[in-house]
Structure formats: C-alpha cells, structure tokens
Amino acid sequence: MSQSEHQHEDKPSAEPSVRDGSAAAIAQASAFLRDVVVEVERVLVGQHELVRGLLIGLLADGHVLLEGVPGLAKSLAVEALAGALGGSFRRIQFTPDLLPSDLLGTQVYNPKSGEWALREGPLFGNFILADEINRAPAKVQSALLEAMQERQVSLAGETRRLPEPFLVLATQNPVEQEGTYTLPEAQVDRFMIKIIVGYPSRSEEDVIIQRMATLGKKPRARAVATPDRVLEARVLLDEIHVDELARRYVLDLVFATREPRAVGLEELAPLILYGASPRASIAMTLAARANAFLEGRSYVSPADIQAVGLQVLRHRVIPTFEAEAKGVTSDDIVRKVFATIAIP
Fold this sequence. Notes:
The protein is of the alpha/beta class. Helices cover 48% and strands 15% of the residues.
C-alpha cells in the first residue's frame, strides 16, 4: 500500500468525525448553560419551559415571542437571562406614540462643534425586550423587521451592524386588546418560537411570595457566562447531525399543515387558512439542534423535533374563521398534526 493510501486510511471522513468526535465537545460546551439556568432560576420561580425556550432561541439565533397575561414574570425572565450571560440588556416599552427613531436612533446636532452625530437607539444591545409589542403601530413594528432578519439597521443613510449575539424577546398581552395593533403575519413569522406563559403552580407561587413579597433587596442574576460563550456554542450547533429521517419528519409535519388531506386529516382542511412557511422548516431544524445541544447530544432525534414543534408552528399556522367559531386554536391543529404524522 502506498504512503498516500496509508494517509487516506488514517484520516477519518468528515461526517463520522462530526457525529462521533464532537459528542464530547458538545457535552462540554453545553455545560456552561447549566450554570446559566441555575442563576436564572435563582431569580425566576418555575417557568421551566419559558427558560428552556429562551435558551433555544439564544442558541439557534432566533427571536422569541412570549404571550401571557400580566404578572407572569415574562420581563423578569428576559432580564435574568441577560444578567446571567453578562450581555447588554435594553428594555423598550412599546406604546401607541412610539416612533421608529425611538428604536433605531437619530441624528443629533451639536451646537458647539456645528456637526451632526448619530445617536444609537436601544436596539443596539444584545438582549432587546420589546415589552407589549402589540401596543405600537405598524410603522414601529416594521422598524424591527430589518433588525430581526438582517441583524442590521439603516440609520441616517448608513447601514450599521448590531452587536452579537442579538436577540429580540417580545411580549404581548392576550387580554386588554383595546388600543393594540395585531402583529402582521410577516413579522410574526420572524420569530423562531412562540411561548405561551401560563400560571405557576400553588407551591411555586408560595415560593414567589417568600422571595418577592419584600421591600428589601430582591435577587438579581449574576453574570456566570459571557456573550462570547454563546457565539462559541453556536459554532458547534452546526456540527449536530440531522439525518435524512429527521429532515423527512420535519417536512412531513410542515407539509401536513399545508396539505392536511394528503395525510388523512380531512377534518383539518376547512380549519387552516394558511399553513406553515418554509421558514418553519428551517426554524424547526435549528431549534431541534439547539434542544439536542442542551441535552449534550451530537445528533437530532424525533424527540427533539417534538420538543420544539409546537413552539415553532403555533404562530405560523393560521386558523380560519370557521375554526375560531368552533373554538379550535392553532395549538389544537398542531397537536393533531403531531398525533397523526408517524414518527420515523
């Protein structure tokens, strides 16, 4: 055997090295997130699904939409995550009188120098909390589109890059709809996942009382990681293997929301106005990779897809008026799809 053949034989192929050799690296790289979770839960009681969803969005470089009634610690969760990761945190309270320049920034005239200077808006941060995003008009909501999709903004004729990581975490209130503006589907689709935040259990609320019902100093998250650690973790995310069966499972789920009759779901056809877009397939794959990363695994399993599927699809499947009249929600439709599509 020639020397070149020996070299070829000793050198492993690219795919096995990713799937086999990176497992330990992924487990080691994801370990810091356990410290982040511990620190966040030192401030936040319960809401484990919320915390995990925020981490998935962070790892997969996807924005997160949070929906729940007031007082469920949605804003506190985002602030605690930013504190634990040591990144810059900006909170924007969306109101009907907000202007796009209040987000992006504006030019400011300096009378001493006689020059104009750019003053960056609150979007120039790592973690952006868009609080009650549906209370701002469409022109303000649309100002987020370029930032969310391209990670840049156009300001005073210049394109300015946003810091990395850049994550928009928006909250919206399902009650008190007077004076609110429904988010357009084009913007809702920019959010990788949507999390419905529910009430805590009785025992969890008892802990909340003990921890928060005080006029003294309340717990705050300490920095136990850095934004650079997140960027390093994202590099390994691409090494998590997604095989053909996993991809086929994602496609089966997404196409079932568009063509329910083709998979034997005739009863869903009159209930779905629009199915999930191709962005849903991308988001589900990325989110499943992030879920596998959190589990310390180097491959995506059907369980990962099931773990993130509802959060990825619930805001992308639009029910018809008939569905609303029957009280059928997008969550009901997505759960029916998951119950019907065979697991590979």
